[in-house]
Every structure is written in structure tokens, then in C-alpha cells.
Please model this.
Amino acid sequence: MRLAFSLSGHRPSRSAVAAAVAAEEAGFDEVWVTEDYVERGAFALAGAIAQATSSVQVGIGVVNPWTRHPVVLAMEFATLDELSGWRALAGIGASNERWMTGQLGIPFDRPLSRLTESVSVVRRLLAGEHVRHSGPAYTVDAALSFRPLRPDLPIVLGVKGPRALELAAESADGVLLSILAGPSYVRSVRSLVGPSMRLAGYVGLSVDASGAAARDRIRPLVARFLGIHGDHLITRSAGLSASACAEFRAGLVAGAPRVDLVTDDLLDRLVAAGTPDEVRAAFARFAAAGLDVAVVRDDPDVEPEETLRLARAAVES
Model:
């Protein structure tokens, strides 16, 4: 199983670039840059990482077709591929109503249709076409003014529902699964997208000589994202009932994520948390379920070098 390191906009930019360099030096295969609104922007940070590294693939994981038109996405991805020298990974996802409408006031209508259109336009622009397209979401009559290095630059979709996963199987080069995509969910996705699809996923990681301390440290993150996912195949695959999903969602909406409901057994079904031996066993479960790339998130409470060391040890053992 390949290893990737994920950086978000919470870390100061120069520190994030240094962490990406450390990931490359630690033998990681990929660095992914996430983007949450009001934090630091993904493309500028990814460009700086591309210039500071030489071997890791540099992925955008992910941006959406609401805040960036597909023509803008294509030019950004092609530029990142130039800067990195054929190392870019183009991550696109549909986002969610909470962020688009709740935070930005953008109507969140027909997300899968919009994502489908966007991927098609981006793909054709990267291939060097002059795209003439008129669809429900976009009207395009444009071509990039420069020739992208790769007409087949890999497009990775950050999706999670069955219909969106079917879209990925038809039109993308890979899938990037959300945080809390546990082994049971990974197994179901693998059966849906087939054996050849590149399957990466964010894996929650917390390691400590005290397994209890490691699990307690990651419970707030798990409670928060269970609230974000709500009643979904991701949460149902972990054995949660509709009522439990509703409790996690209600806690998130109220500003008090239900950390008290995150049991040790639930953690074992969703993340890699515990002692070094327990984490090694968890990574083995993800690999056995069909995950090709484990994307380890940057923990703001842990020095990046320590996170990198622990993840490397878990995969190599």
C-alpha cells in the first residue's frame, strides 16, 4: 500500500511546504493539499510544494466545480503539472450543501450533474481540445492557450455515494475516499469500481504507547466527521443505525459533536488508532479491503515528522 501525506490550509504556508519536503524525504509517494474555505488556498500551496520537491506526486484533494469553473480548473491543473514536471493529480469533488450554501451562499443544486459536466470539460481541455459545450451548468467555448504537458493528466474524484462512485468508475482515473471510509466501506467501493481503479482514502491516524491516549485524541475528529457524513453508506458500513447517525448530525449542528458516542469499537471500524501494534493491524485491514493509497492527515497537535515516522512504520511492518 502506497503512502500519502495530506496538508490542509490550517498550517502556515512555509511550514506546510517544509512538511511536504519531509514527507518526500521519509519515502512517501504522494502529497495531497486539501482546501477548506477561509483557510489557505490549495493551488498556490501545491505550486510551492511542486517547486520544493522532486519525486512525490502532488495532488489537489479536492476542489469543487462550484467555486471554480471547469475552464479555471483545467488551467490550474495544467499549470501545476508544468510546475511539478508530470507529478500532478487533479482532484475534483462535488463538495456539500453545508459548505456551499451554508458558508458561501451558493445554491447546491444537482451536484452530481454539475460534477459530471465539469469532469468532461476539464478532461477535454487538458487533452488540448477547443471545447464547445452547452449544458445545464456550464456554457463553454474555449481552449487553453498553452499545451498541457499531459493530455491524460490523472483525474481523481473525491466522491462517496453509489451514483457518484459509478461516475468515477466511468470517467475518472481514481477515487479519493473521505475521512472515516473504514475497511468495510472500502471493500464495498472496491467491488463497485472494479479491481483496476486507483483507490486512495484519507485514514485517520493516532498513535501512542498508551492506546487509550491515542484513541481519546482522535475521538473529536471522528465525532465531527460522523456528523458531517450523517446517514450515509460510510456510516452504515461502520454499523451505525439511522438514529445514531442522527445523533451525530444533531451534535455537529448544535456545535457540540457527540464525542461521548465514539466507542473504541467504532474507532476500530473507522480509523487507525491505538498502540503501534494496533495501528499496524489497522493499516493491514485497510490494505486487505482494497485500499491502494493510505492518505495520512496532518495532525496540528503533532509535529509532521512524527506523524510521517509513525505512518511509515505502520506500513512497513
